[in-house]
Amino acid sequence: GEPVVDTEKCIGCLKCVKVCPAQALEMFFTPEEQKILEQLAAAGSAPIAEEEDPEAAAIARMQAQYRGVWVFIEQTDGEAAKVSWELLGKGKELAAKLGVELCAVVIGHKVEPLCHEAFKYGAEKAYLLDAPLYGDYRTQSYLEAMCHLIEQHKPEVILMGATGMGRDLAGAVATRVGTGLTADCTGLDIDDKRNLMQTRPAFGGNIMATIMCDKYRPQMSTVRPHVMQMPEPLPEATGQIIRDAFTTPEDQVLAKVLEIIRDGDSKHKVDIGGAEFIISGGRGMMGPENFAMLEELAKELNGVVGASRSAVDAGWMPHDRQVGQTGKTVRPKIYIACGISGAIQHLVGMQDADLIIAINRDKDAPIFEVAHYGIVGDLFQIVPVLTRKIRELKTRGK
Ligand code: FAD
Known about the structure:
By secondary structure, this protein is of the alpha/beta class. It has helices at 15-19, 31-42, 54-64, 82-98, 112-120, 139-153, 164-177, 291-301, 309-313, 344-350, 367-370, 379-397, and strands at 69-73, 75-76, 79-80, 102-108, 125-130, 157-161, 181-185, 187-190, 196-202, 207-211, 219-223, 240-243, 277-281, 304-307, 334-338, 355-360, 373-376.
């Protein structure tokens, strides 16, 4: 509805205009008032609207203490998750815009080599917490470690992978330090007030929202694997390691790791996230048995088979093959979409592929808007021909 201003109480400070989230308020002055304001401004006295807001000043003072971009280097048994290097690539850009250092946070046991690896991917500094306590990831010990480092060094931006570990830790840290966290960002940038602009799909992927955390520090984001580009490592790069002996007494850490059971038969597990060639099938595949056709094509291309959510929901493919907003984000060299319409929730997961080929019998299917090559026709005829032709080319090449 219309905003109602109590003219008896209004002193014309304009605060309401500034804070209205919908920017629905404007202030007008009568000609007489306008004249007085102009006289005041001409006399060099600040107009009422410019009066210093004590709250804004306190925020600015607090924010000035926070400097630097941090990337949490996720590791398991001393091996880093690739998303950490991708984030260093993005972090480097952000740090350059802010004119600050890019720092890696390495927590674990016997993990110093990861600091040197982080320097190769762009970090200038690495905070290292190395102790048996950190051998296995546990929320509490890592949370205490992160909060200790934040309190000591006050970073303005912290990035983590949107992995199981990253999602767990980022949420816990943001809650403890009382700041904002934007999950699953697809874009990160800096505005002219040093705020991190965190872009992510919202409302079921129908809009892209840019989220800011302009009152609190640090600003925290998680980013899914393969969303940011992997930077080229610089083999000669070095940096400064800052060791910190902080630990929480083991008897105060409530969770104990008794045994680690690795996920199933990892040989048969397919990582569509890291694949260079992906052939995905959607509802147009008509049934689970027809995916064998895609497997054959995938075999010829040394690729893997992915799926749309419709195909996964129908039980034709397991969930770890799902591409899209609630599935995986992929960046293959070639993505072939077979019988997939191209809903926005699917597109957000694959539109950064180097080359997209779509096969669909509906020439108006939205998938053709992102495809570099489109084949309008029946996939049951086209896919076997493609497989045969590739096979022929390969045997001829031998
Ligand atoms: P359809 O849209 O039914 O398309 C099937 C296509 O196959 C049609 O274009 C048709 O022309 C074509 N076709 C049929 N037969 C043939 C044939 N013989 N030859 C050639 N072409 C043929 N979807 C995802 O994929 N991933 C996600 O992560 C995801 N997350 C979601 C999250 C939310 C919150 C919501 C609301 C939705 C999400 N979806 C996701 C679902 C998404 O909106 C679509 O419903 C889904 O992607 C459609 O799958 P599809 O393209 O396989 O099926």
